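so my prof wants the structure for this chain in the tokens format not the other one, which i didnt know existed until like an hour ago. anyway here's the sequence
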Amino acid sequence: MAGGSLIRAGVSALLVLSPALGTTATADDGGDGNAGALVREAQRNVLDATSLRLTLTDRAAAGKSAEVASMDLTLDRDGNCVGSFRMGRGGGSFDVVKRGDEVWMKADRAYWRSQLHDQGNKAADVVRDRYVHGTTNEGTFKDFAHACDLKALQKELSLNTSSDDSMRTDGRTKIHGVDVIRLRGTEDGVPTTLYITTDSPHRLVEAVQKGDGTDDTAGVSDYGKPVPSRTPAPGDSVDLSDLEKESGRTG
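here's what i got, hopefully its the right format
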């Protein structure tokens, strides 16, 4: 079962996609203020956030069962998170809740089959419509400790500021009901569009990359909004060790 590593892959894809999260841009003034200053402020607001909601749609991964096609993850600096993930074709989907060192993961039958192959149906029969519950001290769930830690992700971002690709402002528009400034340019040779809030504090709302086999949309929202604290009830969960025993897996 690879839920934690898949979350990590999905978050990493989102961060690579969003230049304003991890790069510094030198930019021209397209009439809506200096684009470089907007990008730097948007980056700073991501690095300073105590919690964030991150979304990703990777259309290029839609046909690949082993890759994350979409995700919606809220996480904070204390390592708490709540999210949902959909894999590419035939890979199923799963939800995750992490609070402290406890993890709950709920997946559909297609996910179990794609991850456990011959044992997948048996695992799905054991779990039924329940969460698998464990801790980040257990092998299968160890990856969740880092994948759900916003502080760790921000540290990685702060070290990734070597890009000299330029962005240029390209007018104003509205996206998801928010007034934004649109910036266009390239990142690693791929056409990239950023949407940053018109009003201060300037925050990244969405980043889009399309071209050369890439077709991704990433969103950032809920800056500083607490991660939901509700966790699944004991009756809605099955212990990870019990699942591994009953499905014939160990470790």
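also thought this was worth mentioning. The CA atoms of residues 109 and 124 lie 5 Å apart.
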